[in-house]
Amino acid sequence: MKKILFRGLCLFFLFGAEAKITLPAIVSSNMVLQRNTTVVLWGWADPKEKFTLEASWVEEPIKVMADAEGNWRVDVVTTGSKEEQTIEIESQDQTIILENILFGEVWLCSGQSNMVMPVRGFNGQPTFGSNEAIAKSANAKIRLFVVPQIGAKTPQIEIGKMASWEIASQESVWKFSAIGYFFGQQLQEILDVPVGLIQSGRGGSRVEAWISKEALNEFQEVNIENADMSKSRIVPTAHFNGMINPITPYTIKGALWYQGEGNFTNPERYKTIFPAMVEDWRTRWEMGDFPFYFVQIAPYFYNKPDAFNTNTNSAFMREAQLECVDLIPNSGIAIALDAGEELNIHPAKKKEVADRLLYNALSQTYGYAFVDGTSPVYDSMEVTAEGLLLKFKNVDRGLYAFGELSGFEIAGEDHVFYPAQAKIVNRRDVLVSSEEVSQPLAVRYAWSNWVEGTLYEDSFLPASSFRTDNWEDASRAQKEE
């Protein structure tokens, strides 16, 4: 909340006059500013208007003057103080006071419905642990900001609807992103610093909706003048315009992303657009390659039970997302192969996924050297007399399975895959074989829409779907009736 006072014009204000100096909704009381860095404060005023900005942690008032269009912006250095801070903006006839500001870690949480899914869950689609999380949610060191779900045809400078920072409580947490909250709650506890979480997501949205027109024009012509904004989730650039562009001046530490279901039938294009989107965001935030951690889509039926080598098999999207780790600098992936539900595209295991995003952040961003954030990744294959021996990266402490491995298939030169037996050998390799294939050449693991991951590394981080081949004509052996 902003306190706005006028000197000598109180009655005029009460009867409808607008403040000359205005701030974006995200710059408000209760906000968290990224600690120990330079942050941006910005807003609008009358053209060429002069005023002062006093921050409680800055010794001298900052003199500000709006430009000829009425825009103003100042850079302010923050500290690591855990004390509450204030900001006072004062002109000749106006005072704006922002209170209860904290310095801490600020993370953006974006994507589609699995990121938007709240702590309480959707109706008939619960979140595990929601009651306990909500009951324990009161924490003045966690602040939440929800960007209204708006699509726009052109880049907006403000989010367009009233929104404000909220302190974590039962009332604010139940409706906030479960992935974001579980990530932020643990980060706050571990680092013992305030955490600010910005939710900017939209269910059913495609990646093309989250990238700017300038960046997307590199891959397709964008003309949305006549687009129906009631369908903004599938309109190219619409959510970038309405939900990302207005907040890009706000300094963040990094971003969390859970999206891909809306694009799963075109994984090759996703490998192009998604890295371009990340690069686009980083360019606009002007903060270099800030950390970007994302979730691989979870297994789900997709009403295509027999998909194997077609664009309706989401294993190809999981493969594409895994490859994006190498295409996006300073990124990491949370594998959710064991956290899906066959008939529910919004699985309840949100904390498990948030944990894996957190491990990425702790190990890569915050220097927790003994926290393991990387899942095992297929590396190479060796043909042996017993079968195909698979080797993996990121398995310094070995592989693990809770019981028998499943989900492995093997093929020979006919490119027909048969169910296979698999076992962990030497604690770090996997031996795959089948009596149906005497001369095996390739292995696929979890290569279906709906699967249950069974292969882990020693920290219980699951391996992704993978294949050792690149065959376009592969098929699956038909089961005998």
From TrEMBL:
Pfam families: SASA (PF03629). Gene3D superfamilies: SGNH hydrolase (3.40.50.1110). It comes from the Bacteria. InterPro entries: SASA, SGNH_hydro_sf, SIAE. Residues 105-338 form the Sialate O-acetylesterase domain. Keywords: Hydrolase, Signal. This is Sialate O-acetylesterase.
